[in-house]
Design goal:
The structure holds 2 protein chains of 2 kinds. Chain A is of the alpha/beta class. In chain A, the strands form 6 sheets. Chain A has a 7-stranded mixed beta sheet with strand order 8-11-1-14-15-4-16, sandwiched between helices. The radius of gyration of chain A is 22 Å and the shape is globular. In chain B, helix 8 packs parallel to helix 10, helix 10 runs antiparallel to helix 23 and helix 22 runs antiparallel to helix 23. A two-stranded antiparallel sheet of chain B has the order 1-2. In chain B, strands 3-10 form a two-stranded antiparallel sheet. In chain B, strands 4-5 form a two-stranded antiparallel sheet. In chain B, a hairpin with a 2-residue loop joins strand 6 and strand 7. At the A-B interface, strand 10, helix 4, helix 5 and helix 6 of A face helix 3, helix 5, helix 6 and helix 7 of B.
Chain lengths: 455, 557
């Protein structure tokens, strides 16, 4: 049975938890339980890999420099990986960007699409379709059940490339989830009800329930009449409506503690000159949604892995993608590219800071969160999926042993550790300890990535 | 699979060109209209009656906004806040990828509630009675029943079934009982209708027995919807509903009459504009940045003017001459004062755009407009690659492979006295690069007279400009000099003509072509050519085509 009161929320670990943000706790059973906090997963995506020479870790001492310099104040909360390859990206159709986008969170290749939705693979000419399986964020969100008002939030910062290279989240194979680029739209969806008159909200909920029930019946009737493929599509829609209905009775946010209603943003969501402001607004909204426990899973896409435009806020017009293809000898372009990567790192530092400002028990929100910083490539210039620049931030309730660099070896065939195990680690950190493999099982070892979790 | 298809199409075209009879393809047994010599009711080995895939289509954001405008008189365009559609083959209306996410399901709910609230605020909007005068519960129910029947028909684009009417009336009763007002009852009914699959999807089940086991005729209401979404991107109007109610729209002639009527309606304009926006990638212009030291005259205002120019040009071409040749060759365009200065013509009076003629040796058609030239260029220089790639992909319908990994891709910096052709010579020197770049760069070299923001240059670095180019691997092989000659080649290319047909097919039918559509495309191509490549005629032919009037049997043949 779903909890109707917030103090009986079931957390990701399946234990009864209470949320100390609430001023309305009525005592009883919840008080006897020591406060724990929900665990959260946030994906922080930046495209086109990194500039290797400026990716300065400084060995096990973690003397972060170059691109990583903005993260130096947070190094105790970070976990770096060396020689983790995105091996499962490399067997399906698609160009390396598309392969990387499908595999980053899905751990599997893109679909072979006879209709070629996404263009052609460079070497074979095979047409490519959308991602081949559910992404780890959606998998975790689904498994949490209707405990929060929103299953997950997919946010974008001018992430407006609606092709295979513009999606990381998938509900299932061939079912991409688009990021929302307009902070005002995010606000309207997530926060507009917050603080509204409870009596009015209850009426709205009751009305929604009866309407959604009727709509659901219509879907069921239609489903019985259409062909198999259409049925699948309609079923997905019907399921989404059922989930929506369940979440109407999920505990809504209650103001108090750090949870407060943000101001409704008003900004042109497509203007490149406003990129830093857009990014900050999206991160603030995400952190507040997490602080209010309106959702526990989120992602933020900084642009996309397609033909990205220029970076006028840093003073250059050259597109990120074009810069990423320049050679090492092109010092000017490589400098600009490193500037942009460093700027992305500073945005991650901002997000970490924002989470650290949310007190949760003895620690902060960051302690109950894991942020995965990932890209679809390791180096843009070579389109490589080797030694991916993955960074984890936050221990996710003490699961990850942070403040370290974990190095893996490369085998005789120059293969590193498969990143699918990292996806399994994320599942375990979020309480899904039964998960053995994620994505394409042939790229999994049968458990989480060794050396990441606290002993 | 698609490769095979292309080859076959080319083969078919060869036979079409070679033979005046051009009977490689016939329609099969469906749509057999003895009075139509082009449609002999015989099956041949080459063509079956298979109308191609018939997936259920959910309304796109574009269609949703137009539909609620026509249904409720509400032009708030709520779908602008819906999640973006995925793009496939250059268009965002491919039924295959129009999926549903939790965010979209929720957005539908919220939009329905708001639309419904606004609608009932305008009562007695659409009501068969005046609720103010319905004092008894029974009378109010009769009124609500009438509304459900008439509004439901328009929203579902077909008459409601008994069970649907009963369910909606039940909702009305419950909401009315809860709040005590007639308006609340109606509001909840409207909200439920707008979230129904019968509103959000274009449901087509077909009606009648299958022809050859592979093609089922669409019912009259289904046909009315197909027509209205094809030509207007919106719901049927009263005339279409009346046609459907009378059981018409089952013959080619009836469909054609409606299609011609509809094309004369201004509602077609938005659909035509939307098609061009996606086909020509016009939205890409908004993120185009230029290096201010190289192009000091570039500004967001100039960029927006380019957009507006092309929007007006495309509209004018479609509604005036209405041909592919005009699209590729007309030197008539639209300028405001800023653009007039850019094109070097006298500024018009006032602040708006006016229609003018430009120097026909410098400007001809879309490919010489700032919107295309600036978007397909680098921040500090033109890009022959991107211009060539656009022509290849959007006008020849080639799908080029992406560049291989591990190559350094950087446009060489412009040097004084060096042309783009010289800078990009590397591609044609290196054997690996040449494979693909020979398809693009030599077409792009034909644009050497246009700089990175689309200005016309008579000379570059004091030297005369070499704008000779070459097209390979098409039906218009060979060299050409400048866009004038490129345009002539494109204008006589059957492959370009065929490609434009294919672009309209994808957009109009909301899906990519398959092997089963070969004959349909072939026939559309023939009539497009025969009509002098008239866009309007192409749309009429898309509407009357068997592939459009039939569907595959539900559950497969």
């Amino acid at each position: 049975m779903l909890p109707s009161r917030r103090q009986f929320l079931r957390g990701a670990l399946g234990t009864a938890v209470s949320l100390p943000l609430l001023s309305t706790l009525g005592g009883g059973r919840a008080r006897a339980v020591p406060p724990t906090f929900p665990r959260r997963l946030v994906v922080f995506f930046t495209p086109h890999g990194v500039v290797r020479k400026d990716w300065i870790l400084g060995g096990s001492e973690l003397a972060l420099g170059g691109i990583l310099a903005p993260l130096a104040p947070h190094k105790k909360d970070l976990l770096f990986l060396k020689n983790v390859d995105m091996l499962s990206a490399g067997y399906g159709p698609g160009d390396p960007h598309q392969e990387g986008m499908g595999a980053l969170l899905g751990g599997t290749g893109c679909l072979a699409d006879p209709l070629g939705s996404g263009g052609r693979r460079a070497d074979t000419g095979d047409p490519v379709g959308w991602g081949g399986g559910i992404s780890v964020d959606q998998f975790i969100a689904k498994g949490l059940g209707a405990v929060t008002r929103f299953p997950s939030l997919e946010l974008g910062v001018i992430s407006d490339f609606d092709q295979v290279s513009g999606r990381i989240a998938y509900l299932d194979a061939n079912q991409p989830v688009a990021p929302t680029n307009d902070p005002a739209v995010v606000f309207d969806r997530v926060f507009s009800d917050l603080g509204a008159d409870p009596g009015g909200l209850a009426r709205v909920r009751a009305e929604r329930k009866s309407v959604l029930d009727a709509v659901h019946k219509q879907f069921a009737r239609l489903n019985a009449r259409v062909g198999k493929e259409d049925r699948q599509k309609l079923q997905t829609h019907a399921d989404a409506i059922r989930d929506l209905e369940l979440r109407l009775s999920a505990p809504g946010a209650m103001l108090g503690g750090t949870c407060s209603k943000p101001t409704r943003p008003s900004i042109d969501p497509a203007n490149l000159f406003g990129y830093p402001q857009l990014g900050k607004l999206q991160m603030d909204l995400l952190v507040m949604a997490l602080a209010c426990d309106l959702t526990r899973v989120g992602s933020i896409m900084w642009s996309h892995a397609g033909p990205t435009p220029g970076s006028p806020w840093l003073g250059f017009a050259e597109g990120h993608h074009a810069l990423s293809h320049t050679g090492d000898s092109d010092v000017d372009s490589q400098t600009k590219l490193s500037m942009l990567k460093t700027w992305f790192a500073s945005q991650l530092a901002y997000l970490i800071d924002a989470m650290k400002k949310v007190p949760e028990g003895e620690g902060t929100m960051l302690d109950n969160t894991v942020i995965l910083w990932g890209s679809e490539l390791s180096v843009g210039q070579t389109h490589s999926h080797k030694d991916m620049p993955f960074v984890l931030a936050g221990s996710c309730g003490g699961y990850f042993d942070t403040g370290r660099l974990v190095s893996f070896s490369r085998d005789a065939a120059d293969k590193g550790r498969s990143h699918n195990d990292l996806l399994v680690s994320l599942c375990h950190a979020m309480g899904r300890t039964e998960v053995k493999t994620f994505g394409n099982a042939s790229y999994c070892s049968g458990g989480p990535m060794p050396g990441l979790a606290k002993a | 699979m698609r490769r095979g298809f292309r080859a076959t199409t080319a083969g078919l075209w060869a036979s079409v060109l070679a033979s005046a009879v051009a009977a490689a393809c016939t329609t099969g047994t469906i749509g057999g209209d003895a009075s139509d010599p082009e449609q002999p009711p015989v099956s041949t080995q080459a063509c079956t009656a298979d109308p191609g895939p018939s997936p259920i289509r959910r309304l796109t954001r574009f269609e949703y906004d137009a539909t609620v405008r026509d249904l409720l008189g509400d032009d708030s365009a709520p779908a602008r806040a819906f999640p973006s559609e995925e793009e496939s083959h250059g268009f965002t209306n491919d039924a295959n990828v129009l999926s549903i996410t939790p965010a979209l399901a929720e957005a539908y709910m919220v939009a329905s509630e708001r639309l419904a609230a606004r609608a009932v605020a305008k009562l007695p909007f659409g009501l068969p009675c005046d609720p103010a005068h319905e004092t008894t519960t029974d009378a109010a129910r009769v009124c609500a029943k009438g509304f459900i029947q008439s509004f439901g028909l328009k929203a579902f684009r077909r008459p409601l079934e008994e069970v649907e009417r009963a369910e909606l009336l039940e909702l009305f009763d419950a909401a009315r009982a809860e709040s005590g007002t007639f308006g609340d009852g109606l509001r909840v009914v409207i909200s439920a209708i707008l979230q129904s699959p019968s509103f959000l999807y274009r449901v087509e089940l077909g009606s009648g027995p299958a022809v050859d086991g592979v093609a089922v005729p669409l019912g009259p209401y289904e046909m009315a919807s197909r027509l209205s979404y094809l030509l207007w991107g919106s719901m049927p109007d009263d005339t279409l509903f009346a046609e459907a109610a009378a059981g018409r729209l089952s013959t080619k002639a009836e469909v054609e009459t409606q299609a011609r009527r509809m094309l004369a309606d201004p509602k077609t304009e938005a659909m035509v504009a939307h098609f061009h926006e996606e086909w020509l990638q016009l939205s890409r212009l908004k993120n185009v940045l230029k290096a201010s030291d190289v192009y000091p005259e570039w500004s967001p205002e100039l960029r927006d003017d380019f957009s507006e120019e092309t929007r007006l040009f495309v509209k004018d071409v479609f509604w005036s001459q209405g041909t592919l040749d005009a699209f590729l060759g007309s030197s008539t365009t639209f300028v405001n004062a800023r653009l007039a200065k850019f094109y070097g013509v006298p500024a018009p009076e006032g602040s708006g755009f006016v229609k003018i003629g430009l120097d026909a040796s410098q400007r001809m058609g879309f490919l010489t407009q700032g919107s295309f030239l600036a978007a397909n260029a680098k921040p500090n220089q033109p890009s022959p690659i991107h211009r060539g790639k656009f022509v290849r992909e959007k006008l020849f319908c080639d799908l080029l492979p992406p560049p291989p990994g591990n190559v350094v891709i950087k446009a060489p910096d412009p040097k004084p006295g060096q042309s783009a052709r010289e800078r990009f010579a590397e591609h044609t020197k290196d054997a690996t690069c040449r494979q693909c770049h020979k398809l693009m760069d030599p077409i792009g070299f034909g644009f050497e007279h246009y700089d990175g923001i689309g200005r016309y240059l008579a000379t570059e670095g004091g030297k005369p400009i070499d704008a000779t180019g070459e097209i390979v691997g098409t039906d218009v092989e060979g060299t050409f000099d400048g866009v004038t000659e490129l345009r002539s080649k494109l204008a006589r290319s059957q492959q370009v003509s065929d490609c434009v047909v294919r672009q309209w097919f994808r957009y109009g039918y909301g899906r990519a072509e398959t092997d089963a559509d070969r004959c349909t495309l072939d026939r559309l191509g023939r009539s497009f050519t025969a009509s002098g490549r008239s866009f309007k005629e192409l749309l009429v032919q898309l509407a009357v085509s068997d592939a459009f009037r039939f569907r595959r049997p539900v559950g497969g043949p």
